[in-house]
Design brief:
By secondary structure, the protein is α+β, with helices and mostly antiparallel strands. Helices cover about 35% and strands about 40% of the residues. Strands 1, 2, 3, 4 and 5 form a five-stranded antiparallel beta sheet that branches. A hairpin with a 4-residue loop joins strand 2 (about 45-50) and strand 3 (about 55-65). Helix 2 (about 20-30) packs across helix 3 (about 65-80). The protein is globular, with a radius of gyration of 16 Å.
Length: about 120
């Protein structure tokens, strides 16, 4: 009962994969913060046979304002508790047709899973 309440609290479904749950929750927060998800790549998976663990690294890119991206990063690391923010890269870009500047952020989230 305790674990089912935790799954409900953090909105984790047991029928879906971790990747789809993570993307769904990031998408919900992005819509609330007026961010646009540019890409969500397949995870990079490394298995360490000596420690019986697997390291999964998820990479996603978002576009939007600096404060909104910082709120998303805080939410991913502190509220969603899905893993550790391994790398964050900001790039300021300009659309020369519309003469508008925008900010892209590439985020790498690392998750360690025990396999044995």
């Amino acid at each position: 009962i305790y674990y089912n309440k935790l799954l409900e609290k953090y909105q984790i479904s047991t029928e879906d994969s971790f990747q789809s749950n993570f993307l769904k929750r990031v998408q919900e927060f992005s819509q609330n913060l007026n961010l646009k998800i540019i890409s969500f790549k397949d995870p990079h998976i490394y298995t360490n046979p000596s420690s019986n663990s697997t390291v999964e690294t998820y990479e996603l890119s978002v576009r939007g304002g600096y404060n909104a991206i910082i709120k998303l990063l805080y939410t991913i690391e502190q509220k969603m508790k899905v893993g550790v923010l391994n790398s964050i890269e900001f790039k300021k870009k300009k659309n020369y047709r519309t003469n508008i500047n925008y900010l892209d952020c590439t985020i790498k989230v690392q998750r360690i899973v025990n396999t044995g």
